[in-house]
Amino acid sequence: MQQQLQTMLALQDQINTLVNENWREQNFAWYRAIWVESAELLDHYGWKWWKKQQPEMEQVKLELVDIWHFGLSLELQQGSPEAVAAKMEQQLSAEQPVAGDFRENLEAFTLNTLSTKQFDLVGFAQLMIDCDMPFEDLYLRYVGKNVLNRFRQDHGYKEGTYQKLWAGREDNEHLAEIAQSLDSAAENFSDQLYTALSNRYPGSQKDLA
Fold it and tell me: What's the whole-number average pLDDT of the chain?
């Protein structure tokens, strides 16, 4: 877990720096992004008692990954990646709570976020348990989304020249297929993902489109 946390923290630092070189000094309102994402998450889970709703668990997990991005950014402002990873591992390795009421736990997490303007890692871990999302799943989803975000930025996303659709499929579909063929335990897992995406992208030397 320690290595995976350090990998994710390093990736988050890279993507934040790509967007703004001095992101740490900007004091962005990461906590605000977290509570807004939490509201979107609740919509995917369902809360309206006047209509039939089924939790969209895949979307719920994707929203949790988005929250994790912002949470890592907040944590990185507290110290070095190594120190932060050690603290996070200690919190995540503590006695695991049992699954509970997802909606109530999400509200408690959001309330804590608003009152402290920090990342409630313990509360987040509870939400992962509530929706049956192990740490390994979080790691794979996060690394994949981070690599895809960086890949898009590097290939003209801001300029509007990036092609999201290749060979009749969206880039995230290619990403999921590639990730399944690689060893997620490898230290250079994210680099392998990025290279494989580059080899598939239209116009590359190994264009498979």
Answer: 87
Cα(35)–Cα(106) distance, rounded to whole angstroms? 10
Of 139, 153, 108, 120, the closest CA to residue 30 belongs to 120
- pTM to 2 decimals? 0.80
C-beta separation of 188 from 206 below 8 A? no
Residues 6+ apart with CB under 8 A from 85: 2, 5, 6, 9
Torsion of CA 136, 142, 145, 150, to 10 degrees: -130
C-beta separation of 170 from 185 below 8 A: no
CATH for 2-131 (1.10.4010.10, 3.40.190.150, 3.30.200.20, 1.10.600.10): 1.10.4010.10
What is the Cα 18 distance to its own chain's centre? 16
Tens of pLDDT, residues 24-78:
888 899 999 999 999 999 998 888 888 888 888 888 888 999 999 999 999 998 8
- Secondary structure (3-state) at 141: helix
